[in-house]
Amino acid sequence: MSDAASTSTTEVVGRSFALSSLITSAVLIALVTLPAVLPEFWTVNIFVRAMIFGIVALSLTFLAHYGGFISLAQMVPAGVAGYTIAVTVPDAIPANGFQLPYGPAVALALVLSTVAGLTIGAVAVRTREIYLLMITLAIAVSFYFFVQANVEFLNGYEGIRNVMGPDILSVPLRTPAIFYHAVLAVSVALYALVIYVSRAPLGLVLQGIRDNPRRISALGFNVALHRIVAFGLAGFIAGVGGVLLTFYNIGISPGTVSTHATISILIIAVIGGLGHPIGAFIGAFIFTIFDTFAADIYDRDRFNTLIGAVFLTIVVASPDGIIGLIKRGNALLARDRSPVSRSQTSIAP
């Protein structure tokens, strides 16, 4: 490639980066100002719910995209965190004997969710593909029946309610604008964390394990340890989502960690696309929209059919989800705008 073509390609890449940064800034500004222009129903019931689902799906996308392993047990660390909050805060009903303020309770919940993630990773570390799916699904189902059967501490089928969340600067967390901006800030922070880790040594080793674990092992890296650490980080991310989901629902019950919830997280990740962390939030927004309004659009008793049809349509049209469609669109635009492409077009007979 000539120096002129190389310089032009660098300019195109630079313009693409500037355009991406501009779009990201505009989206963030729009999200911050949404409570001022949208009704409370949309900011709380749609956007807050979508961001919380997106956080849990982000843990799955992190494992799938950078590690190459798809886990169906991400609602387990989320549930561990949610139940830890529910059984330790003083205003929960029914109350337990050991109670903590919200700050230490949240810290304990995240520690236990990380431990849960590490445990899942240790159990599934030797498996891949369909066997990994089967083991993580078995863990998820076992956890669901465990919390449903535990009446003494987790209140069995009814679960624990009245988990109102802490106060922030003497204002209740569940104040709509406060809750929205808190969840948005946490979502952005976790997204930035995943991007940072993907470029750190841990993320680079994980991508190497995804592509060729034997070569990474030959280079002296402990493949099993890195996989377990990845599950631990994913457990921490899912735990944050579990804490926020418990605050959003003002409690937690076995339905929060049921098989239906587990499959919903997988659907969210697949709809958005496993090729980039932002796909988790895009998929969560689409899923929340249809999950909220499908009963009004279609037959109330068969609204899951509409959700399933949308899922199949997206997967068939783009197996790598919405992110795949965006990448293919950007590639077409970049090819059309490339000086090399234009020069080839101009000399074509």
TrEMBL record:
Residues spanning the signal sequence: none
TM regions (residue ranges): 12-34, 46-64, 76-93, 105-125, 130-147, 178-198, 219-245, 265-294, 306-326
Matching InterPro entries: ABC_transp_permease (IPR001851), LivM-like (IPR043428)
UniProt keyword Zinc, yes or no: no
Entry GO CC: plasma membrane
Location(s), subcellular: Cell membrane
Coiled coil spans: none
CDD domains associated with the record: TM_PBP1_LivM_like
GO molecular function: branched-chain amino acid transmembrane transporter activity
Keyword Membrane: yes
Superkingdom as given in the UniProt entry: Bacteria
Membrane topology type: Multi-pass membrane protein
Subcellular location, principal: membrane
Keywords of the record: Cell membrane, Membrane, Transmembrane, Transmembrane helix
Protein name: Amino acid/amide ABC transporter membrane protein 2, HAAT family
Lineage, top ranks: Bacteria, Pseudomonadati, Pseudomonadota, Alphaproteobacteria, Hyphomicrobiales
